[in-house]
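Researcher: Next sequence.
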Amino acid sequence: MVFDLDSTLFDVSPRVERILLDFAASPLNQKRFPEQVALFKNIKTLRTDWGIQGALQRAGLDGHHPEFQEAVREYWQKHFFSNHYLQFDSLYDGALEFVEAVDKAGAEIVYLTGRDVERMGIGSKEILQQWGFPLHEKATLVLKPHRSMDDAQFKTDYFIEADKNGFAKIYFFENEPVNLNHLVQYCPHVEMIFFESTHAGKAQPPVNIPRIMNFLLSQKGS
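Model: Next structure:
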């Protein structure tokens, strides 16, 4: 059982919101962009947001100030891809319980993420441990060795290598259609499950694969 992290097990919208609020709290940014920063009191991220543009637009920031847009984008990128804000992520419904159930059933678990070792390795491990996700010999975290690596190719290469271990079945939970479509070309036998949360909008997920919006094993009244 292979799980992506961002926007699959973890809802990153609280992380994005905290970063934007900290941008607005900076005295330097308050001095540089007083009109724009004043609108940050209305900032609210949604689970369906990808990146920062949706939250900025809903707050009344129209995108017509290039210097401000570049400054907030650089601030977001620097801090989103770091160890320091991972504590603000929340879990999708049932995520922890589902992974725990998989672990108890005896399956091997891999957390396969596009996060890179240098910027997010320490924090990713710590957060998994703090939430109580299984981490042991048969439940491992796999990150990109370097930030420059393409996510889709990195993940596909992982599955190509995993094929050599003779698994009877491999399942992959992922929210990004680009990664799933790439994997279809090289490892079509992998059982892919599209986690329908949010994504970059660059592609649609492969047809005829299961879709889920949470990891709840059972629901009252269903």
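Model: The chain has a mean pLDDT of 95. The radius of gyration is 19 Å.
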